[in-house]
Design goal:
The chain has 54 residues and is mainly α. Helix content is 96%, strand content 0%. The protein is rod-shaped, with a radius of gyration of 21 Å. Keywords: Membrane, Transmembrane, Transmembrane helix.
């Protein structure tokens, strides 16, 4: 009975870890989307310059 409880606790902890990781990934994705919407045109020019110089 005690072992079963420990397994449940571990499963709960891993779900919370994944939830936390998911929130971080969401925050990063939102930041990238905001960054691209703000600086997207500049980045395109930057990439064009990089690829043209090669």
């Amino acid at each position: 009975m005690k072992e079963k409880m420990e397994v449940e606790e571990k499963r709960k902890a891993s779900i919370e870890d994944w939830y936390f990781v998911g929130l971080i990934l969401l925050a990063v994705a939102l930041f990238i989307a905001w960054f691209l919407s703000k600086y997207g045109a500049d980045l395109k020019l930057l990439f064009q310059l990089i690829f043209q110089s090669r």
